[in-house]
Design goal:
Number of helices: 0
Helix content: under 10%
Order of helices and strands: EEEEEE
Oligomer: single chain
Structural class: mainly beta
Length: 72
């Protein structure tokens, strides 16, 4: 996506906490959050800084725990 900037935030221990991209300072596109052990915690999409579509939460083994559909 043109004009987007990569985004990465880390836990205090240096492990990756969140990755995604921003557009005009707002989250946009696909994002992922991780636990300190590196396992994926949650993933989903943003449009204009708002959560859209289906967001997936994962258990500590990496299996889908639940899917939440965001309201527009």
């Amino acid at each position: 996506m043109a004009g987007t900037l990569p985004f990465e935030k880390r836990h205090k221990d240096g492990s990756v906490w969140a990755v995604g991209q921003t557009l005009a300072g707002q989250p946009t596109g696909y994002w992922e959050w991780f636990r300190r052990d590196g396992s994926k915690l949650r993933s989903g999409y943003f449009e204009c800084g708002k959560q859209v579509g289906e967001w997936t939460t994962y258990d500590s083994a990496g299996q889908v725990y639940k899917i939440t559909r965001m309201k527009r």
